[in-house]
Amino acid sequence: MKITEITIRHLTMHLKNPFTTSFGTFKDKEFLLIETIDEKGTVGFGECVAFETPWYTEETVKTCWHMLEDFLIPLVLNKEISHPDEVSEIFKSIRKNNMAKSAIEGAFWDIYAQQTNQTLAQALGGNKKKIEVGISIGIQETVEKQLAVIDQAIKNGYKRIKVKIKPGWDLELIRIIREHFPKVQLMADANSAYTLNDIELFKQLDQYNLMMIEQPLATDDIIDHAKLQKQITTPICLDESITSLEDARKAIELGSCGVINIKIGRVGGLTEAKKIHDLCETNGIPVWCGGMLEAGIGRAHNIALTSLSNFVLPGDTAGSNHYWEEDIITPEVVAQDGYIAVPQTSGIGYKPNRDAIQKFTISTRHYK
Ligand SMILES: O=C(O)CCC(=O)c1ccccc1C(=O)O
Ligand SMILES: [Mg+2]
């Protein structure tokens, strides 16, 4: 395939419920949508998951646009590429900037799947017909509100609940949640809000039978996580710390985690995500697919990835209606009884909703 035209759109979408983490609150999601067209007229879409501010990783909407426009697009525009795996090879000359790389690589995968008449899931080697998903619930204003939101999520069919914790909103919160929901599959995500000085807190958390604790320590750490893992029984799940196959290899070798959360954008694309998946499978490390409050295009890519065999734990890919009044794909993503059906039409399996995309777009630029 040869991409002859690329469009970047800057969208802003209002979240149904504000999402609060240890770093702050989101009310809207601003992001870039990438549309690519090849010489045969096949259209592919990729979603850039970077946020407006660099709280989760160092990338932002603006840094991604800069990287795409000035470096990444010139490397792939009008180049003959036979397989999307080649895109990450070409991008190796650019350090990091994984979310920017991933956005464009995803559009190549979409086109490749369509041209080989496969679903994106099949193109990646995934066989599952449906995937099990959970839900990630942000920090609420009160414990009562937190319990009510969890209760509603369970009523909506989600069987695995993830809550966000931060210093002062942790042990007591988990104790109360467990008291109300003794059996639910429960986990906590700290988004790097703690240090090894908090080791007593983590030992205390062991009594609540959490499935895992996600990213308790620094965003770039695997050494302290290994020390912590040796002292607690709850498996540590790494999110922010794993940005590549090499990171995953080292974390596994050190014993820094028992589980890895794979996010396509964080690791630089589907090719790298699949490699991490395969490495974890070989090493007996279960994985699940993380989320970045994606709109429909990014969500569709997550669903395809989750169809791979070692995604054995429910991920954060909830249905469109958990996030949006209106999503940018048709049909929207539906989670029923905690499962999403993997679409069976070629490419990402959902149609971009051009009217909705238009409505949420605040600026557009074309490259050819
Ligand atoms: O529902 C989702 O998309 C995932 C929500 C979530 O936990 C999250 C959302 C934004 C940034 C980081 C994270 C995270 O997994 O740490
Ligand atoms: Mg996380």
TrEMBL record:
Q: One Pfam family, short name please?
A: MR_MLE_N
Q: In this protein, which residues make up the domain named Mandelate racemase/muconate lactonizing enzyme C-terminal?
A: 143-235
EC number annotated for this UniProt entry: 4.2.1.113
**Active site annotation, chain numbering:** K164, K263
What Gene Ontology biological process does one annotation of this record name? Answer: menaquinone biosynthetic process
Q: Which InterPro entries match?
A: Enolase-like_C_sf, Enolase-like_N, Enolase_C-like, Mandelate_racemase_C, Mandelate_racemase_N_dom, MenC, OSBS/NAAAR
Q: Which keywords accompany this UniProt record?
A: Lyase, Magnesium, Menaquinone biosynthesis, Metal-binding
- Key word Coiled coil present in the record? no
Cite the annotated pathway: Quinol/quinone metabolism; 1,4-dihydroxy-2-naphthoate biosynthesis; 1,4-dihydroxy-2-naphthoate from chorismate: step 4/7; Quinol/quinone metabolism; menaquinone biosynthesis
- GO molecular-function terms, A-Z: magnesium ion binding; O-succinylbenzoate synthase activity; racemase and epimerase activity
Q: Does the keyword Metal-binding apply?
A: yes
Please give the function described in this protein's UniProt entry.
Answer: Converts 2-succinyl-6-hydroxy-2,4-cyclohexadiene-1-carboxylate (SHCHC) to 2-succinylbenzoate (OSB).
Which family would the database say this protein is a member of?
Belongs to the mandelate racemase/muconate lactonizing enzyme family. MenC type 2 subfamily.
For this entry, the protein name equals: o-succinylbenzoate synthase
Q: Which gene underlies this protein?
A: menC
